[in-house]
Amino acid sequence: MTSTKESPSGYSQFACIGAGFSGIALGATLKRWYGITDVRFFERRSDLGGTWYANKYPGAACDVPSVLYSYSFEPNPNWSRVLPSQEELWKYQKHVADKYDLPSKMTFGVEVQKCQWIEEKKRWVLDIRDCKTGVVFQHECRFLFAGSGILVTPREIDIPGSENFKGSIFHTSQWRSDVDVSGKNVVVIGNGCTAAQIVPSIVDKTKHLTQIVRAKHWMLPPIDGVYTDYMKSIFKYLPGTMMIQRLLIFLFAEIELKAVPMTTSAAKFRQKRRAYAEKFMRDTAPAKYHDLLIPDFEIGCKRRIYDSGYLACLHSKNLTLTNERALKIVETGVETDRGFIEADVIVLANGFSTNTFLEGVEVVGRDETLNQHWESFGGAEAYNCSAMGGFPNFFMLLGPNATTGHTSAIMAIENSVNFALRILKPVLDSPNGVVELGRDAEERYVNRIQDDLSKTVWNSGCQSWYIQPHSENSRVWNAMVYPYSQGYLWYRSLFPVWRDWKITGHTRGCKSVFWLLFKSLSVLAGAPAASACLYLLWKSQWNFKELYVNITTALHSIYLKSQ
């Protein structure tokens, strides 16, 4: 039986659920912007890092370039590769957290079970369970943030009999380092992004690897590469070079937005991308597997996969790719609709629960729970991907519709953190200050988001984890993808619409008014240049690859002369 007790430090001005990229961004920005260090993080795992601590499977790596998949305020000139490994990303997270003294504010091995707004105190009260002892304690805070991520809970296996299997069976996010696949028969169930990294990393060790294909995905050539020592020196010693590289990669990634709308011009762009991807897949994968691999739906409907050696490894003599339907897991393998597959190890690469947020955490606002609030809309949602009406002083990081598959989730996290801290600034010095979103503003925002998403390739009919499971007559709901550029989310985060908020107990002074005026004039001055940049980007009149090569070559020459 659990008991309730007060934690040694039972109150903090800020509290955050999770200690991954979102939590670290919050803690660092609080200190950078406002000098605030009164924050606590509650993490269920034994260390910080979130996704990049949990997922330690062979071949685990990021599929977004490292210079973009990192904090803008903490550039790293020492990345070893364009696409960093799990270990390198986790070390980067540790470095940033240590720099801002965040580990001392983190409590590990605990689960937040309930968060309730107490109107009389103008505080949130958290019920937190110690995962080892089962003891439950309480913690209070003025401002509550949810930074627990979006791909967290492994999807339940839909094949009966796993409890009878005599070998080792585990999900990719719970990879067992004590299990050696050498000389064993391995079955991998699933063929998404994770499986595409695992299979080429382990196939040569196995006696035989059988991969059960459950869906098709468009795959593109790899964008990886090694950063040489001279490139690292340029990034380290020439100011602005990392920022230029980050901007170029961001703009190059934004080209993918051209494929999103269901318009004639977008369809032509998708057709070109589809032809490019199909040629790559046919040229690289064995011909006997083309029908199992190449999709028949629009490119972009699902998240694309950058090939990291997967298609080439399908030529391995000890690998079999099959679309047999798994019926039952038995003691020694998997029974299918066509026979039996022997297995010593079964790897579940069947993905995660999607379109769900804060699973296992009951959030109680003024008049309802968060799940009740979302049910009234038809699915998970949030104004500017962060806030909900009726939940004062509460913000989500990487919340509903925050991410865009073609670019960096870290950019979305920073946008959400910056937006929330700008909204909270007027009440930071007020002990009873409260910010709360108006319901009307939330409804307008959410209806616009869902309406615009309905006109995109993501809602074009393929079986995608972007779309919430729904009945034939219910509204199609997409809580996973942002339908616009991350540049637009940055703009909305820079200039909050204050009329959408009810703020009580605020202490805004003249300085913030002048600062807002200064920012407005700055944006107005830069708007023509930014508009021209985006126009040229949209018309594809810039060859960003060539521009990037020219800039790096010039920087290399400067570096050599300096030596």
From TrEMBL:
Q: Which organism is it from?
A: Fusarium proliferatum (strain ET1) (Orchid endophyte fungus)
- GO MF annotations, alphabetized: flavin adenine dinucleotide binding; N,N-dimethylaniline monooxygenase activity; NADP binding
List keywords of the entry alphabetically. FAD, Flavoprotein, Oxidoreductase
Question: Could you tell me what this protein is called?
Answer: Related to flavoprotein involved in K+ transport
InterPro entries assigned to the protein according to its UniProt record, in alphabetical order = FAD-bind_Monooxygenase_sf (IPR051209), FAD/NAD-bd_sf (IPR036188), Flavin_mOase-like (IPR020946)
Q: Which domain of life is it from?
A: Eukaryota
Q: Which Gene3D superfamilies match?
A: FAD/NAD(P)-binding domain
Q: Name one Pfam family in it.
A: FMO-like
Protein family: Belongs to the FAD-binding monooxygenase family.
